[in-house]
Amino acid sequence: MLTAGKRLAVFSIREGKGGSIWVRAGSAFVNKDGSLNVLLDVLPLDGKLHVREAGEKRDGMQTTGGGGRYGVEGGMDAMAAGGHS
User: Fold this and answer.
1) How crowded is residue 13: how many other Cβ atoms within 10 Å of its Cβ?
2) Could you give the CA distance from residue 43 to residue 11 in angstroms, rounded to a whole number?
3) Would 77 be classed as within a structural domain?
4) Per-residue pLDDT of the chain (85 residues; tens, 9 = 90+)
5) In sequence order, which residues have a C-beta less than 8 Å from that of residue 50 and are 6 or more positions away?
6) Which range marks the domain in which residue 38 is found?
7) Would you say residue 81 lies in a domain?
């Protein structure tokens, strides 16, 4: 259920050779009137975004329950050495 102040995760989902690749694209927040503010860190190549409830923090990584190859915050970018924030 979307309630005011709830934090949501925004993803771009790409189909790869080994399955779906989930890339964290940003965050969204629910306003008092039920509308959303979406803050994007990246723009999806295909113009599609997936928004879901943010997961629980666990051992420095955030799980989303999103399935796919990368169900953690940052997707492939979080796993790359020397990446940008």
Assistant:
1) 19
2) 10
3) no
4) 788 888 999 999 998 889 999 999 999 999 999 999 999 999 998 999 999 998 865 554 444 444 444 444 444 333 333 333 3
5) 10, 11, 12, 13, 22, 66
6) 7-70
7) no
pTM of the model: 0.62
Token look-up 């080994």 returns 18
Nearest alpha-carbon partner for 10 in 61, 46, 45, 48: 48
Q: Is residue 64 part of a domain?
A: yes
**Residue 85 in domain:** no
Separation of CA 12 from chain center: 7
Structure tokens at 20: 């779906």
Nearest to 66 by CA among 75, 57, 76, 58: 75
Contact 52, 64 (CB under 8 A): yes
For the chain, the straight-line distance linking the first and the last C-alpha, in angstroms and rounded, comes to 30
